[in-house]
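#struct-pred

JT: dropping the chains for the assembly here, can someone run the whole complex?
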Amino acid sequence: MPPSTLNESGLGRLGIETPIAHIDRALKQLWESDEAKTRASLINLAIYTEDSAFLAADNDVLDHVAAEHACRALLILALPDARPPRARAWIQALCRPYQGRQAVCSEQISFVLEGGDAAQVQNIVFAQLDSDLPLVVWWQADLTKNFGERFYSRIDTLIIDSARWNDPTRQFDALLEAKNAETADFDVRDLAWTRSHFMRTALANCFQDASVLQNLSRLQKLAITHLKGQRMTALLLAAWINKRLGATLQLEFIEKDTGPALQCLVLEGEGVRGEVRRDSDSSFVHVCASCGRHEHKDLLPADADNDAELVNEQLSRRGGNTLYSGMLPLIRAMLG
Amino acid sequence: MSDLENPFQETLLSRHHAEPCTVVIFGATGDLTNRKLIPAFYNIAACGDLPPQFKVVGFARRDKTDEVFRAELEAGNRKNSRQGHKDELWASFAQCIHYHRSEFEDPAGYVKLKLRLDEFDKERGTPANRLFYLASAPEAFKPILEMLRAAGLNEGVGGKWARVVCEKPFGKDLATARGLNEVVNATFDEADTYRIDHYLGKETAQNIMVLRFANSIFEPNWNSRYIDHVQITCAENLGMEGGRGGYYDTAGALRDMVQNHLFQLLTLVAMEPPTDLSADSVRDEKVKVIRALRPLVGPEAVGKNVIRAQYTAGSVDGVARVGYRQEDRVNSESKTEPYVAMRVFIDTWRWQGVPFYIRVGKQLPKKATEISIHFKKPPQVPFATSQLLKNSENTLVIRIQPDEGIALRILCKQPGQAMNMQQVKMDFRYSSSFGKASPEAYERLLLDAMAGDATLFARRDEVENAWKFIDEIENAWHKAATPPPMHEYPAGSWGPKEADDLLRADGREWRLL
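RK: done, full complex below.
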């Protein structure tokens, strides 16, 4: 976890501090101050956290994401237990060069809500949305608190990262309860699931080899090497593989202290083996499938697995994530 | 065995999925392979979309090894790859590239090619699909196709398919197009024939259908009741650089651009909604548009509706340019048109009485391709005199290149006490709204061809009907006793005065780009 940055110099990185009641006026002044800037927005993207240690990292995520997905960015740090109650806001433009001259900018509004409750959070979020644009929320906090029906019923896409959860069972229960609520119509994107996308693609490539493909039924063992803290990512991948094979493989999880989130996947059975391996600092994966003396090797791109790239990846994919939705009940059952 | 389904192959609706495939490029030492095709395959690989166990075989006359061929392509990829060049990826990708030396007319070369492709299949442990890409000069199409058929390469092996991709030009008139299509279809079924028009691979061209059929505000107004006229412009600020004059002088703007690229854009703008998004449903609707073009028969009709012109010496961007007939490899007596402007009508219920103005030209002031839809003025505007409303109709502009996007021009009240109106533009730009660069047209089209989606490729009847229309104009120009005149315009201007007159006679003007 990054060190806490809730001090005035850290907060200064959020832009110009502005009274909440004057945010609209301040944004207008921001755009009028430089006519060369073009404002662009396709979505409302909010990050909600209750951990001040993530504030700087989340600020960087929004900066990075806005370069690819023009948005109204909202960064909300809520500290429900802080006293006395206080609400502060900052605004800034997130700009990227365009045609060498101009700058295309998204706008970011950041809030620090000390002593805030769920109602305050939702009032603030809903008051600052760019109207008519979809609302995408990355909820980094506990889903069992503050994530109320009035809030999630307005969300179009909910981003979570189940790898960060301390108690996945409770969180998945809360998620399924919200997802199944009558008023909920949001699509769930789990960054832990996105993290395994390149592995799943590579695995499909690996078993496209005809000799290996016809021996799939012989597969017995699955070993996944993952970074410490990414066990949920590995579990999701294992659950998917079992589901696709219609089998229950013998599982082994190997944890490493350094390296990418997912590092190696080996599927083995009598006379057949498939391996997908990603070396540290490499943006590619090596695929190797063998069956008897026959061997097939390939090199495929590996997705970047930092948070900003994962969010970018998700925002690039419109439409419901039916694959993950189909996995949700299975994951819950697997967790017991 | 090859029919076994891979359980890990996820079905992602928005993504094309291609199965193991070998692509054979004829004319592999040419500019297209080096500049477009190989960088496109490399970028498909960089996105992880290349089918597993992919192979590409360059087929050409020159003698060279796989290694030399790969090295030449690597240099081209470094220069032309959209996503840059990564050595690690290239090293892996290059292993898929092979070179096959043969004359196009040599049967033995094709027998050896077949053996080589069979050998690749053996390495894979399964037969793969085969895609033959004709990137050679069109004169070589016939012998290549005949040799492919003689060698049995036109048939898929082990339940897999064999397809052909043809680069334009698809003939130079109806007779040659039919001849070429006969040859192609004698070797490959029409369903396995992919005629590539890279304009259709462009993001904005594909967006025309989305704009029209996914937004309920446009389609109800998309007809003769609300649309006054449509303009399609393809302007180039270059002439015959790079020795292009040799080919161009045998073709001209009408054959080189209008018959294919601009008619493709016209069909997308004018077509009826397809019943579904299958390739044939979409192409059925496009063909109906071409068939409904009101024919221009005889020199009088052509002279009245089509303006041809050649540029004379002038300057573009402050740089002096020679006239068309003084260009390198252009006949000094040339009767070929580097500029054409035309008015066409589509005789359907939807478009009755709506003129479509098309113009394309070389040595114009800027490079731009766009479609503009000019809506009718409101029946009565109480705020202004008709003089103030001149040229102020609502206009929807679809910019194809560069700066892809959509703009809508509307009237607004100017701030102040008086009721003055001002034109304002609502502008959507792909590059500012979407930070991610669009794939190159060839990437999309090659992936579609490998995945079996022919929607963005021209069908035989589409091509032949377009030639039928174009031939009447060519005949009037080149075979009539009193052909319509060839006009002139200075390089760097927006074309001949007569093209302006064509619209002025209808009470309209070309849109200022």
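JT: nice. The mean pLDDT of chain A is 87. The interface with chain B takes residues 38, 40, 42, 67-70, 96, 98-99, 104, 198, 200-201, 203-211, 213-214, 216, 241, 244-246, 282-284, 294, 296, 298-301, 316-319, 323 of chain A (CB under 8 Å).
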